[in-house]
Structure formats: C-alpha cells, structure tokens
Amino acid sequence: MLSKRIIPCLDVKDGRTVKGVNFVDLRDAGDPVELAAQYAQQGADELVFLDITATHERRKTMIEMVKSVARQLNIPFTIGGGITEIADAEALLNAGADKISINSAAVRNPKLIEELAKAFGVQFVVVAVDTKHVDGKNWVHLNGGRLMTELQTETWIKQAEQLGAGEILLTSMDHDGTKAGFDCNLLKKVNESINIPIIASGGAGSMAHFTEVFQKTNVDAALAASVFHYGEILIPDLKQELSRHQIPVRI
C-alpha cells in the first residue's frame, strides 16, 4: 500500500509566507525558504508553494525563491500561482520545481492542462480546485476564492482528469483556516469518482483530523498550513500518530 503523504503548504505573498481564514485576514508566518528547510528536516513528504497574488511582474521573484528552495530541499515541491502558459511552467521547472499547480488559468483555458501534460508529463501537472458549498452544490471559485464560477466542482475535476491532470489539490473554502476538520464528505465523493491522486486541503486543526481524512476518504495526501507554520502540530508527531492508527506513512 502506498504511503499517505503529509504536505505543508506555504502561501507566499511579496516573498513572505502568509496564512488567513476562509482565504482572508492574512498574517505573516515566516520566510518560505527557511520554513521549507525546516519541514524537509521534520519529514514532510512534499511541499506546496502558492504565490497567492501572482502577477507576471513578480514572476522573477518567484523564480529566485524556487532556486533558493531547490538548493535547500531533498523532497519534491510544487509551485503554483500565475502560470498561464508553457513558458511560465518551464521557467519554474528549470529553476528546480518538481511540479506546477494551475487553478484559475486552467478553468479559463482548459487546453492548458493538456498542453502542460504533453510538454512535461502528467505527473508534473497538479490542478488546484478551490470549492465552496452554495445552495446545496459545490462550485469552483477562482482568483483566490473571490470569484464564483458556473462550474460544479465534481464535473470540473473529472474534466481536468480527462485533459491530463496528474493530481488534484482540492481545497474546501468553507473549511479553510477554520481548524474544524477536512470536508470528508466531498473528498470521499470526489475520490471515488476519479483515478488520480487527491490532496485534501482546508480545515486541519488537530492530528485527529488527519487520521479522520485518511480513514474516511482514502485520499492520497493531506495538506495543511497554519498548524505546521505556528508549531501546533509537528510532522514527526503526526506521522507517529497516523502510524498508530495503521495509516501507512513514511517515517
């Protein structure tokens, strides 16, 4: 059985790691390169960096950060934010990123998923989906959660898989930053409907929440930010706890 992955997420704004609640009220959480090195030492399986206010003007800053991170790390890391064409992804991969994550750009131009998968391989392409429950259904949101689309979450994820996504990073905006637990109902439903790995995101507040999401949904990975950034959960402790519950992890 494949080991379940624990993935710290670093939301980066102006070169600093930040964290909010329900995608707003951001506060500083430290230097991303230093945090990345700490997580690698603690035993994180992968890292995700999201440039949450990415624009082309700041792409050069991001590339320098990627190079710095790559020098520090011996684990895979994914970069997302502001990738709208092959050249953006190529620059980040050349700088040392292992995978790229696309979100809004993929919804606006679904062919981008196909193009990236053909250019770099399916395993390099993570499609991030920010979802919110509105009027009894789950809807895809763009622009850091600020813009609701007419796409239903489950439909879009299936389409992304067909186009060549190698992995889905599914963030529940309703749960994000609340520390009340992952959206297990949605994650289970989506995981049973597709054949590519899912990274669960949004809501981690305790070690029990990680145990619950793996036991109830069988997702491949669980991602969190603030509980790791502020030292509320240490990755070695979390992995020992998961192991006690017979959840396979790399220790």
UniProtKB/TrEMBL annotation:
Active-site residues, record numbering mapped to chain: 11, 130
UniProt entry keywords in alphabetical sequence: Amino-acid biosynthesis, Cytoplasm, Histidine biosynthesis, Lyase
CC terms in the record's Gene Ontology section: cytoplasm
Superkingdom in the source lineage: Bacteria
Pathway assigned to this chain's UniProt record: Amino-acid biosynthesis; L-histidine biosynthesis; L-histidine from 5-phospho-alpha-D-ribose 1-diphosphate: step 5/9
Annotated NCBIfam families: hisF
Function: IGPS catalyzes the conversion of PRFAR and glutamine to IGP, AICAR and glutamate. The HisF subunit catalyzes the cyclization activity that produces IGP and AICAR from PRFAR using the ammonia provided by the HisH subunit.
Subunit structure: Heterodimer of HisH and HisF.
Name of the protein this chain belongs to: Imidazole glycerol phosphate synthase subunit HisF
